[in-house]
Amino acid sequence: MAWWSRLRGEGPSRSRSESVSDPAASAAHFRHFITSRRGVEAYVEPATNVTATTVVLIAHDGEWTRRAFRSRPEAFDLARGLGIPVYDVNLTGYPARMRAWTARQRRR
Q1: How far is residue 9's CA from residue 12's CA, in Å, rounded to a whole number?
Q2: Where are the beta strands (DSSP E) in 27-106?
Q3: Rounded Cα distance, 76 and 69, in Å
Q4: What is the reported pTM?
Q5: Which of 76, 85, 28, 78 lies closest to 58 in space, CA to CA?
Q6: Which of 40, 59, 82, 98 could form an S-S bond across to 63 if both were Cys, CB 3.0 to 4.6 Å?
């Protein structure tokens, strides 16, 4: 079984760092998202066993985009540097508009 091989270190494995995007590319993507939408806010999500630290940008209508970062400080620094409000999702949760937008997209 593949999962057993990975546990024993015999098979290929992916680390969280492999899924982290290039910081410059993420910043460019975020700048484009911010300039093309209104009321954008940043939500920093903590790293888990499966994913790296991520930043989710959420527009006024709930549309969102997400990128992974190497560390929590890097994520907060980039979001603050963009000049938009930044929140820790562990403290604030996700805004209802994000869930509503995602639900509308699923119905399409």
Answers
A1: 8
A2: 41-45, 53-58, 64-69, 86-88
A3: 10
A4: 0.81
A5: 85
A6: 59
